[in-house]
Amino acid sequence: MGWCCGRGACLLIPSGPGEKSHLFTIVLGPKQLDGYGGSDQVVMVSVTTVKPDFPFDPACVIQAGEHPFIDRESYVYYREPRIETVAHVKKMVETLGWQPREECSPELFKKIIKGLRESKRLPRYVRTFLD
């Protein structure tokens, strides 16, 4: 069974300084999002490592082992979600630019969605898609 572009699916995507790969999780979609054209889109959020003495969003802290890729305390970075068309995501997976990883467990996905709703750092324009 191949990778599926849907809620809870995870990808390693180059992003941030030095284009280091981060784990991204699809949290919304695929569906047409108002203002983003006629194609189906997904909303993805990344996971990044908690660093000592560096502020982070406490809405969803993930411990090592909660996902097979996560090996240290991390958090979901809700501040800069990515909105991508399903076609683009599939193309990036097919061309090996983005690497599929194990999808979130149902428990972890619920925790990420709970954080999505509670985060004070989630942009307002994304919050409108939650309703």
Radius of gyration: 14 Å
Summing up helix and strand content along with how strands pair, one would put the structural category as: alpha+beta
Termini separation comes to 32 Å
How are the strands of the largest sheet arranged? 4-5-3-2-1-6
Mean pLDDT: 93
CATH architecture: Roll
Largest sheet: 6 strands, antiparallel
Brief descriptors of the model:
six-stranded antiparallel sheet, 20% helix, 6 strands, SH3 type barrels, globular, alpha+beta, single chain, 131 residues
How would you describe what is shown here?
- Helices cover 20% and strands 32% of the residues.
- With 131 residues, it is α+β, with helices and mostly antiparallel strands.
- It has a six-stranded antiparallel beta sheet with strand order 4-5-3-2-1-6, covered by helices on one side.
- The radius of gyration is 14 Å and the shape is globular.
- The chain starts with 9 loop residues before the first strand and ends with a helix.
- The model has no long low-confidence stretch (mean pLDDT 93).
